[in-house]
Amino acid sequence: MRFITAGESHGKALTVILEGFPKGVKIVDSAINSELEKRMLGPGRGKRMQIEKDKVEILSGLRNKITLGSPIAMMVKNNDAKINPQGKDSLVEKNVARPAHADLAGSLKYGEKDINNILERASARETAARVCVGAVCKQFLGLFKTEVASYIRQIGDYKSNKAAKNISSILAKTRRSQMKVIDKKDEREMIQRINQARQNKDSLGGVIEVWVEAVPPGLGSFMHFDRKLDAKIAGYLMSIPAVKGVEIGAGFDYAKKKGSESHDAIYYAKDKGYYHKTNNSGGIEAGISNGEPIVVRIAMKPIATLEKPLDSVDLKTKKKKKASVIRSDTAAVAACSVVAESMCAIAITEGYLDKFGSDSLGQISSNYKTYMRSIKK
Ligand code: EPS
């Protein structure tokens, strides 16, 4: 399975072609739209999200809502294309690069002096197209009861000390939380920090924890570097704009501990097969899922555009100038969590298709059942 997105932030639409997705899977538009809506929400989002009403249009790959095994083309229109069309310069100072955005590195790479020509594709708006793919994959995974969910662990320097124990509690609690947290006190503190940052014309990042539960053991492989499930998940998450760190399971804390106090001991019970009582490995050992929940944390840096801009340089004159100021978000951590879930759902779906076949749902299900029976023995 693979996909490719096309589209710019202020172009007509974002589009994606998903190829290699199996035949016979029912796809519900409303499930994609609800993910798109979640990506637009959350404290700290800016004015653009008041203009957009992201909705998917499925252009190909389905007949009577069931996948044909053919490429699935999807489109999300940009309402803003009518208000701020691509041709119109959206930057006040189109030559002054914003630190931490693609402006400088992108301009150097492409020999460009007009930053508008860089930011159009570098904008995190592209992630709406990825969320469409993630939502399709989530529907596939749901057929095997594999669920993906996430919650916010940190906003700026405010760190929640509540850790989730399972995915059902994450789903139940975050459903009622606009900040996507599992604790009410955290919600108040985090929103307050985002409001403060907005008042200070500043921006914030945060930490997101993603869970994938009911993953069959055996997805991924230790046979080669690019077949390792943890490497794939880490790479996919790192590809999200503004993500600067990924850790799996105990992550960096694992390095501080002794093996004797941190490795996940192995047990067996007739009804559930092999299992572990702890999950420091985050559900992946030797690049292979081990049947425990996959737990991943990502660090998102603060949004690059600042209303109180940092020092920068005019790319034409090379003179010192304050960075460009354009409409932006104060924080987009909740939005990023939706994209992170999507990227994990895509990686896990690829794991399923590699292990159980990829042509049709019927064949995949039958292979899955035979395998699951065999590993319990
Ligand atoms: C985004 C759309 C963008 C930004 C944001 C993400 O819209 P515009 O640039 O028209 O305001 O709000 O992108 C960035 C934060 C960025 O730095 O590129 C979206 O749809 O998520």
Could you describe the 3D structure shown?
The strands form six sheets. This protein has a five-stranded antiparallel sheet. It has 377 residues and is an alpha+beta fold. The protein has twelve helices and 17 strands. The site of ligand EPS has 15 residues, from loops. Ligand EPS binds next to loops.
Mean pLDDT: 96
Helix percentage: 25-40%
**Overall geometric form:** globular
Topology, number of strands: 17
Structural class based on helices, strands and sheet pairing: alpha+beta
> Which stretches of 5+ consecutive residues score pLDDT under 50?
none
Strand residues, percent: 15-25%
List the secondary-structure elements in sequence, H or E.
EEHHEEEEHHHHEEHHEHEHEEEEEEEHH
Main β sheet profile = 5 strands, antiparallel
Q: Please, how many domains?
A: 1
Q: What gyration radius follows from the Cα positions, in whole Å? A: 22 Å
- For the termini, the CA-CA separation is 31 Å
| CATH H-level superfamily title | Chorismate synthase AroC
* CATH class descriptor: Alpha Beta
- Cofactors and ligands: ligand EPS
**CATH topology-level name:** Chorismate synthase, AroC fold
Number of helices: 12
Oligomer: single chain
User: Which strand order does the major sheet show?
Assistant: 8-7-9-15-10
Judging by the overall fold, what is the CATH architecture?
A: 4-Layer Sandwich
